[in-house]
Structures are given as C-alpha cells and as structure tokens.
Amino acid sequence: MASISSLGIGSGLDLNGLLDQLDEAERGKLKPIERQIETQQVKISAYGKLEGALSAFQTAAKALNDASLYQSLSTSVSGDAVQAAAGSDATIGQYDVTVNHLATAGTLASGRLEGIESLDQPLTDSEQTLTLSFANAEGGAGVDVPITIAAGSSLEDIRDAINAHEDAGVTASIVNDGAGYRLALMSSETGQEASITGLTFGDADGNAYTDPNSFFTADVTFSTAEGAGEIAQTGQDASLEVNGIPIVSASNKVEGAIQGVTLNLAEEGSSIVKVEQNTRAVREAITGFVEAFNSLKDTIGELTAFNSESGAAGDLLGDSAVRSIESRLRSVLGGGVAAEEGGFAMLSEIGISLKLDGKLEIDEERLDEVIVNDQDALSAFFAGDSTTGGLAGQLSETVTQLSGSNGALGGAKSGAENRIESLKERYIRMEQSIEGTIARYRTQFGQLDGLIAQMNQTSDYLFQQFDMMNAQLGKK
Q1: One-character DSSP codes across 212-248
Q2: What is the pLDDT of residue 367?
Q3: Residue 174 CA neighbour count, 13 Å, CB half
Q4: Vertex 295 angle, CA 292 and 296, to 5°
Q5: pTM higher than 0.70 for the full model?
Q6: Nearest to 215 by CA among 155, 130, 114
Q7: Which of 45, 67, 273, 425: disulfide with 383, CB 3.0–4.6 Å?
Q8: Which helix H or strand E contains 269, and what residues bound it?
C-alpha cells in the first residue's frame, strides 16, 4: 500500500480535521481533573490567608503572655530641661530636677600658622611628635597623648593623623581666622576631666621644642604673639539637682541620679519627672489582641461567605477545618483560667465580652479601671505563672497546635497539597492514554486514506477500460 505523508491526500477526505475533533473530544476528559486541581489550589491560597490571620492573632496573644509587660514603667516630663527614660529597676515616684548648667566639651585652637599657601603644603622636614594634654578633675598631672607626625606632612595630614589616632580624645579641624590657619581641637567627651588643655610640639622622641617653629619648615611661622597664641576653653561638668540634692556629671546623659532612670539634660532650667506604671503599653497590647481576633473573624467570614442573590461562595464555605478552628478558639476564650481569690477568671471580668457574631468587644471604662488598679491580676490572667498558664499562653499554644502538621489547618493544607500531587499524576496518566489513542486513530486514518486512494485508483482504471471498450464498439 502506498505511503500517505498527509492525511486526506489520498482519499480527498478532511481526515486531519476529523482527527483534531477526536483529539479535542478526548482531551475533554482532562477538564474535570484541571478543575479539581484549580479547586485545591484555591483552597491552599485560602488556607494561607487564614494562616496569616491566625499568625497575627498568635503574635498579639504572645505580647500579652509576657509578664514583664505588666511590670513596665514609663516616664512623663513637664518642662524642657531634661528628657527621661525609665528602666526595669526604676521606682515609682515624682522627682524635681533642676539643671544649673550643661556639660560641655573642652576646645583648643593652636597659635596661628603663617606662610601657608595651601592646605596640602608640606610643613615638616622630618618625623615629629605632637602631644595633646588633658585636664585632671582631681587637680593632678593630667594625661598626655603623643601623636607621631610623618615627615612631609601638610596641615591636612596633621589634622588627619590626630583624627585617626584611636586614643586622641579629640576631633581636629582647620580654621582660618582671616590672618592665617589654626589647628582647632574639640574634646570627644564632655566634662572637665576629658577637656583638652594643651598642645605641645616636639621632636621624634617626644621632647618638647623650646621654640615651636622648630617643628615646621623654614617658610612657615608659628605665631605666639599676643592675640595669636593658643585659645582654650576648658570643658565643664554638668551641674544639676534632684529633689534638692546637688549632682555633678561629666556627661549630659546622667544615669543613677534617679534609680533606674536615665536623664538626658537638654537645657538649663527645671523639670518634673514622674515615674509611673506603663498603663499605655498594657492597654495597647490588650486592644491589639482584640483587634487581631476580630480581624481573624473577618477573614473567616470572608472565606466562608455565601451570597444568596449572586450564588457566589467563599473559597472555604462549609470547610470542616474552619469550623474546627472556630470551635477550638471559642472554647479557650470562653473557658477562662483558674484564678486565685481576687483574681480574674474570665474575659468578661476585665471588660472584654464575646458578642453573638463571635467577635470580641471592649468595655472601655471597665478595662481602664482594671489596667490602672489591677495589673498584677491582669498579669496572672493573661500570662499566668508558666508559658501556657494564662489565657494568652493557652491561645498561643492552641494556634500552634491548629497550624501544626496534625492540626486542623495544617492537616487540611497538607491534604490539599497531597490531592494536587495525586491529581497531577492522574492527569499525566490520562494525557499519555489520550496521546496513545490519538496515535492509534492517526494510524487507522492513514490506513483508511491509503485504502480509499487505492480504491479510487482501481475505479479510475476500470472507468478508463470501459471507455476504451465503448469507443471500440462504436467504431464497428
């Protein structure tokens, strides 16, 4: 039988079109599997959204499960003289703070350098030593810091050598006073003891020159004439009073003057510093907890909604995992905790109630009263005496269990993922079967095309023979 390279050539029939229709009909068997895979993917996405809302709620619950939250203190300051921050060891109270003067850093400007045409001009012919001297609050000899200056150094190089020295204790800069350049130094720290008080020029061994000009090249003059010599401003310690008690500090950041409180001195004047319980942090944590739960309820409502008019349904409508999650959380929220005498056992006792729609509602007045007067009882209620002893700990643990591989959400999510894998395998097998079927159809159509072509050829031959016979008979 002759080989047919394209279906339909031999027979004149549209066998390719027919084969395409058969292929399309066979592939229609894949559509239900595709829809099932899409359904599971939509579910997984919905589970992810639910998981995010659960995680946010768990984070809010964990914030309430921290006992230190209910022991935190805050500061309030009236007046602009100081700013204050309370630590964990601060004591509740009120303090009158008067700042007499702030701590300042010592400054020093060298004598004027004349004859410098540019800042990168070399000023030293050989290695030299520059010695910085610092004050001593106790009236002693103070501290000297030697700094090596390389040969050929410019004024910029001298400045940079000072700034690069890790123990210099100053920041160096260059000032032009209109008549010449000066090397300006400012102590890195405030206070009298850290104050820069002297600048000495010496040789490579640190021996001071009697004439500072020996430090420099011949074309540069170090002027010590009246009005051009060293200009120094000694640093001073801060002076303040706390409840009338005089205090001296080398820094404007004062620690220890009030136990557990850090004072940052801002300006001269008076301020009143109050250290009190941080009720704001507790209220924000409780409000955040309620808002996170209600947001979780909104997410669940969106995922399980049904519109009777349009027929639109949420992605998890009727899902058993969602019902299980809601049931478990309601049980923990409604169950409360075991409480000692005078403590809180139920959310309703602190001003939080569970409404008919499943959301939480705050009685602002009652909650404020509890936060102000019963923070120890609040701590016992939410945080308890162990990780899962309080309500917040129980809720956090419940969310962990629900989200785990064996939990309602974790199990539902992994189940959907497994179904997708199974459906994909089924899809591949089905697709391979369809391809085999179409291949058989193609072979059979090819055979049919060849057979019809052969029959057409035979028919044409017979007609030709009949025509010839008729022609011969007609001549006779």
Answers
A1: GGGGS-TT-EEE-STTTS-EEE--B-EEEEETTEEEE
A2: 94
A3: 16
A4: 90
A5: no
A6: 130
A7: 67
A8: strand 269-277
